[in-house]
Amino acid sequence: MKDGVQELVNAAKRNGEVINFDVQSWLKSVNVLIKEVLHFEEEVRMKRRCLYRWNISRKATKITQDVRHLQKEGTFNNVAHPAPPPMIWSTFREGFKDFKSRMTHVNRVIEVLKNEDVRMIGICGMGGVGKTTMVKEIIKRLEGLKAFDNIVMAVVSQSPSIQKIQSEIAEELGFKYDENTESGRARRLYRRLMEINSILIVLDDVWTELDFEAIGLPSQLSHKGCKVLLTSRNEDVCKEMGSQEIFTLPVLTPEESWELFREIIGKPLDYPDLAKRVTNECAGLPIAILTVAKALENKRKYEWDDALKQLQSSAPGSISSMNDKVYSKHTMEYGWGRGYFSNIDSVEEARNRVHSLVDKLQRRFLLLESKWGDHTKMHDIVRDVAISIASRDPHRFLIRCDAEKKGWPKIYDHCTTISLIPINIDEIPVGLECPKLELLHLEGERYSENSMDIMCKGMKELKVLALVDMGGISALPRSLGLLKSLRTLSLNGCYDLTDISDAIGRLENLEILSFRKCSRILELPKEIGLLKHLRLLDITDCDRLEKIPHGLLSSLSSLEELYMENSFRKWEQSAAESEDKRMASLVEVMSLLSNHLKVLVIDIPDFNFFPKDLYLTIQTTIRFHISNSLGPSPVRTPSTRAGCYAFENKLDIVESDAREFMEIQIVRVLFKKCEDLMLGRIKNLKYVLNELDQEGLQHLKVLTIRECPEIEYLVNGASWTQQTAFPLIQSIELWGMPKLKAIYHDQLPQSSFINLRSLQLDDCPVLKYVFSLSVASNLVQLQSLSVAMCPQMKEIVSKERREHETASDIIAFPKLTNLTLYELSNEFVGFYEVNKLYSNNEITDEPKDQNVVGTSYDEHQSSRSFERVATCES
């Protein structure tokens, strides 16, 4: 009997099952009894005298009873049961590195998962950045913390299978489905999950929105203890599925990449400099670093050299700033020329389409955010794949970033797009024929008119031509007129260009013309007026341009966007003696508003050049950047133009009289529509908002005021209406304000300044405090505060409270992370003299101002750290 049970047990063990406890106990008892029987038999042989027979008889009776008892208990329905699944983390390979770029996210995710109100969290990032590896580390740490009763993980993938997801979850919970249908399995899984008090379900590699009900996952309302952690390459998926928190995982820093690479190699590197270059080509992607490092382990130098060459083969490293910027401006201009925008009627609509697509690609991590706000970046590996795809049929893009070495391509007749950087145009072969070419982008130093003629004759279907930073072009050749299909012409940075008159008028289908930074052009040729289809004209930074013939601009009846910053300034204010000497006037420009003009960027000598009888309605749709600051000025703010035309409505007004420019109706309307306002050295201006816009500058986001000698308050509440002041303002900079007494005086509506994020005060000698209690309570968005060279400043929040204000009105600026206090009063007491908002123990690793004293206002503030704190005694 024992042998039969043992055989069943052995079979169960081979199947990985767990032997039932009663079976194990029975077998143990049987083995003990067998030993007793053997010992008894030996005793019988040794003790045959009559004296011992009675004792032996008793033992025999006892053994017989035990045998019968075990025989009775030795009948089992099952000797074993399926083994429970192993702890999920026990199957994970080691591989997570506690880099700073990772640990910040790991700790934050764990912290958020502990929040009872959070049901779903998303972790997103580009493919290969390490999302799955990080999630596995999070699971291991959660298991150690015993934060959940169960943690399960299912891989979703690009083509999700509900049945596969259900099976993976069930397997890790240790049960099998009897049901065959998805709906039946969903009900079974739902019931099982509802039995678990707290469970974390990890869904890895999610590409599209999942139907939780179809899978069998309970909702937050039905099971608050069931949380979901998902990873995806698409931020939109995380949002669509209802993630309450989304974490974006960045690529590794160069230092982290190098550390990981060395660790994988596992021994001193024979070629450290070469290894660093190879590591840099992996561009911070852990999966690329892992693959390349393992492939090069124990390899010889020539194999390392070859690997580096292959990694660099399609990487446009020679393009200036290529790794930092992908130009949205070029995307729109080139796309428009190629006719890519279907059902689009205007350049602005096309730009909006581009921005929407860029945002979508960023959310899917095919494009990355850049430190340049109006640009985007493309990861090296994504770029290489994109170039590879674009080079095949039916696209046939030819993109070379080392064209200076390789010269003009030998195979080009099937190409639709060619981009060569840098290239010498004088290398173009005679007899060139590119019958399918629609877009040509060239950057280089050398140019020859003969090569340009060859190019124009062989590319008659060309729709987009960009000659960028091309030296040696003094005039456009007449052969350019052969390009009858040309819709976009970009000559940006052609610094030798002086004359475009010969060919430009013959490009009758041209819609976008840009020659930014062509600083030798003195006159805008009248032939441009022949371009009846022209929608966008950009002559930004043509700083020597002195003549635009009268009537030229007004003849551009289809013009939608005009960019002239740091360019022509000699606007006609009154008619000249002879017609040929007349210049373009602002009356011409403004007349275009009645046609199609939607964007206007100009410099003017004086706002009085705007006719006072010219009327502009607030309903007029126009984006603008208008400045009367001519040339370098200590009060002029940095330009908002950056090449993609995505600026905010901006006014720069310097060295002017407020009483005079406020008499001009157009200026008053521009103030109401303005989003970015700079005022410098303005006379006759005491209360900014009261005198510029009684409606409160409802659209303003950025305000910069410098060296305005008479300003006392931004708002004087004593003469203010109930209109909210600065409801959208995000940034305020006040500098060199000798009479500024306070940001505002008296009372303001509750929502004033509610979106303020950055405040900078410099050289305000009579300013004693920054905020009153009532306004301070609104500043929940404030992130950066800088107060410098204010010798009368005694406190940030005024202790001079009104009757309705109490200490409880104070808040502790929960988002403030950058604080600068410099050269303030010797009597400076801190944020607030009575209820101090911050304590010295929060200002670490920086020189401390002994005057910044007090205790934390709230318990939660004690754990908050600043990104930047600078303090200095006066």
UniProtKB/TrEMBL annotation:
* Entry-linked Gene3D superfamilies: Helical domain of apoptotic protease-activating factors, P-loop containing nucleotide triphosphate hydrolases, Ribonuclease Inhibitor
**Start and end residues of each Disease resistance R13L4/SHOC-2-like LRR domain:** 420-599
**Where would I find the NB-ARC domain in this sequence?**
104-265
Claim: Nucleotidyltransferase is one of the keywords in the record: no
- Alphabetical UniProt keywords: ATP-binding, Nucleotide-binding, Plant defense, Repeat
Q: InterPro entries given for it?
A: Apaf_helical, At4g27190-like_LRR, LRR_dom_sf, LRR_R13L4/SHOC2-like, NB-ARC, P-loop_NTPase, Plant_NBS-LRR
Please give the Pfam families that the UniProt record associates with this protein.
Answer: LRR_14 (PF23598), LRR_RPS2 (PF23247), NB-ARC (PF00931)
Domain Disease resistance protein At4g27190-like leucine-rich repeats positions: 668-790
**Record keyword Repeat present:** yes
Query: What Gene Ontology biological process does one annotation of this record name?
Result: defense response
An annotated Gene Ontology molecular function: ATP binding
* Family listed: Belongs to the disease resistance NB-LRR family.
Protein name according to UniProt: Uncharacterized protein
